[in-house]
Specification:
By secondary structure, the protein is an alpha+beta fold. Helices cover 56% and strands 12% of the residues. It has 19 helices and 18 strands. The strands form four sheets. A seven-stranded mixed β-sheet has the order 1-7-2-3-6-4-5. A seven-stranded mixed β-sheet has the order 15-16-14-13-17-12-18, with helices on both faces. It has a two-stranded antiparallel sheet with strand order 8-9. Helix 1 links the parallel strand 4 and strand 5. The termini are far apart.
């Protein structure tokens, strides 16, 4: 706990930041004031002067940048108890010498460690609501789609059974008990399979794919009650889906049972319209609430859009049937009437494709949100590398500059950079030798200059276009507030050695290449995008499974229903025609609707957040994939019907 009462303090504490591979980590400088004081959590003992203790993830990821020797002598690892997660990057450093009275002005006095304080990985955390939104939008909706399709597979048989029970006087309760009893065993088996990855997470730390995040097994064990509740709710929701998706209605003017598969409920169309309205309205709500409204509207829109597409397909099916009747084409007549009579079939098949197109494009848009400055920094890094490094601290004295110059790799030159916030004219000072290494003149007075050297261009682009230079015959000195050192080298990949030399002389120094701050920010976005990619990939896998199950079920239905037509037509052409008009054409229409809505939705999101870009190529590829899938469904459906017709024999059914 930080205190202003110096007499109660047990240690000095200071926080700084550094980066490894564009990923920022926290560096905590500590210096005990009392013998026997309790060290920070995760440390078995205080580091000795000049020693550093690193989190295991930081030590592992920073090997190529010599992180173990950057801040001092490596003294061991930080234990789990001192980390937010096993993947946290954290360093505890004890300076070789206690801070002077002047240096202590930037240090804090603390009475102890172990209490909650925003530092390390906690600084980059996101509220649970945002995580649940991303998980729900990208994985939850496909999971619900899979649940609905899996619940309705083989529905024609169950619908006939439900209608028979109703005709015999059975109530809703009787039908529910029978449906639940039929589904209980497979649902229980699926729930049991879900326990297996949970057991693994309870036993060992698991690195989550795509993100690199290490899931702490201790945290997982503390969430066992929540896991048990989630499994119970999952089991109950799955059974409820089977029960409520297999209902029968009576028409007000008839006692004949009718399945819900013959119509699309109006509330789905209204709900989709409300979802679109929420997406449009979100632009008028700022910050997190606006994002929440947008996400909820998106989920509702994509979940119910297949029903809107099916309404359009039913209208198209009616037109196809009428035209087939007028022209004497039985394939169009039968296919069109099937589309009108069984829209649920189209819903289940279109669900995976429509949501899949939207999901793929949303992943592309989120991953494109980099920012102009970050994009410039990436381009500069690719061209310049680390041949220009900035060293900044309030404690850089002329003697420190001399010591640093002697500690740098061969061929390195040190210059002083003075920037003035009220001006765009930065001033570079250095010896004639240092200036000439950049192909610059050696003026005694400040002089505006331009150079073809890429290192000079990088300094000008980040510190001010009106660059001036001045030769200093005596020792370099810096302004505490507006000054920093520039270390320029001819050879790349020497930043690790420069950082090691700087940290050995100046505790809590800031060492970075031009634009590194923007690269770190971009890397943080990339890490968030990796979570988006994880949730989206899982959702896409669920959608592919949904499409596979739905297609398989539809092939089985077509096989039995179309087979007797062989007796009436004596030709296999009828099968291709029926499947084409009943499956291929409606699914192509659904793909077209999904493509238009996806383009609008993605462009609207980019305009709202003023960031990212939309790839028409990704949309075109996703749509083309759905078109190919639609054609494949038609071809395979026709082949299945033809093979079944060749083996069909009349029976007394």
């Amino acid at each position: 706990m930080i205190t202003d009462q110096k007499q109660d303090a047990v240690a000095l504490w200071r926080e700084a930041f550094d980066a490894v591979g564009e990923v920022q980590h926290t560096v905590i400088y500590i210096d005990p004031l009392m013998p026997g004081a309790q060290p920070p959590p995760g440390l078995a003992h205080w580091p000795a002067p000049g020693e550093v203790m690193l989190s295991p993830e930081l030590a592992h990821q920073g090997k190529h940048e010599q992180i173990a020797s950057r801040y001092g002598n490596y003294a061991g690892s930080i234990g789990k108890s001192g980390l937010v997660s096993p993947s946290e990057r954290l360093a505890y450093v004890r300076p070789p010498q206690p801070p002077t009275a002047r240096e202590r002005e930037s240090w804090f006095y603390t009475t102890g460690f172990g209490q909650s304080y925003p530092m390390g990985e906690v600084l980059y955390g996101r509220p649970l609501s945002q995580v649940l939104l991303a998980l729900g939008a990208m994985t939850g909706v496909p999971a619900v789609a899979l649940l609905v399709v899996a619940s309705r597979i083989g529905s024609s048989t169950r619908d006939r059974r439900s209608s028979l029970l109703q005709a015999l006087g059975g109530s809703w309760w009787h039908r529910s008990v029978i449906n639940a009893g039929e589904a209980a065993l497979p649902v229980a088996a699926g729930t049991a399979l879900a326990i297996l990855p949970m057991v693994a997470a309870l036993s060992i730390d698991i690195r989550i794919p795509l993100t690199g995040y290490l899931l702490n097994s201790d945290d997982a064990r503390s969430a066992v009650p929540m896991m048990a509740i989630a499994l119970t709710v999952s089991f109950a929701v799955s059974l409820a889906a089977v029960v409520f998706l297999h209902r029968v209605d009576r028409d007000k003017n008839s006692t004949r049972p009718r399945s819900l598969s013959s119509k699309v409920p109006h509330w789905r169309l209204v709900g989709c319209g409300l979802g679109i309205a929420a997406v449009v309205f979100s632009q008028y709500v700022r910050d997190v609430p606006g994002l929440l409204v947008f996400a909820v509207g998106t989920v509702v829109m994509w979940a119910l859009l297949p029903s809107v597409a099916v309404v359009a397909c039913r209208g198209l099916g009616s037109v196809i049937a009428k035209r087939g009747f007028r022209t004497g084409r039985p394939g169009a007549l039968i296919g069109g009437r099937w589309t009108v009579a069984h829209p649920g079939v189209i819903v289940r098949l279109a669900l995976a494709m429509i949501i899949g197109i939207g999901l793929v494009c949303q992943m592309q848009v989120w991953n494109s949100r980099l920012g102009e400055k970050a994009a410039v920094a990436r381009a500069a890094e690719a061209q310049l590398g680390d041949r220009v490094v900035s060293v900044q601290s309030r404690n850089i004295t002329p003697s420190v500059i001399e010591d640093l110059s002697r500690s740098l790799p061969d061929g390195s030159q040190v210059l002083a950079l003075k920037s003035f916030p009220e001006q765009q004219a930065a001033l570079i000072q250095g010896t004639c030798l240092a200036l000439r290494s950049l192909s610059l003149p050696c003026p005694a007075e400040p002089q505006a200059v331009a150079s073809n050297d890429i290192r000079v261009s990088a300094v000008a682009s980040w510190y001010g276009p009106a660059l001036r230079i001045q030769a200093i015959p005596s020792r370099l000195s810096l302004d505490e507030l507006n000054g920093s050192l520039l270390v320029v080298t001819k050879a790349p990949r020497q930043q690790a050695e420069i950082e090691k030399a700087a940290y050995a002389l100046i505790p809590a120094v800031n060492v970075e290449s031009p634009g590194e701050t923007w690269l770190v920010g971009a890397a943080n976005k990339d890490r968030l995008n990796n979570w988006t990619l994880l949730f989206g990939s899982l959702g896409l896998a669920l959608l592919l499974l949904t499409a596979a199950l739905s297609s398989a079920a539809e092939f089985a239905r077509i096989r039995h229903v179309l087979a007797p037509l062989a007796v009436l037509t004596g030709s296999s052409t009828i099968y291709r025609s029926v499947v084409f008009w009943h499956l291929t054409i409606p699914l192509l229409l659904s793909t077209a609707i999904a493509t238009v809505v996806t383009a609008w939705h993605s462009l609207f999101f980019i305009a709202m957040v003023q960031e990212g870009n939309f790839s028409w190529g990704v949309l075109g590829t996703a749509s083309l994939g759905c078109v190919l899938l639609t054609v494949a469904v038609g071809v395979l459906g026709a082949r299945t019907a033809i093979r079944s017709a060749q083996q069909w024999r009349p029976t007394a059914d």
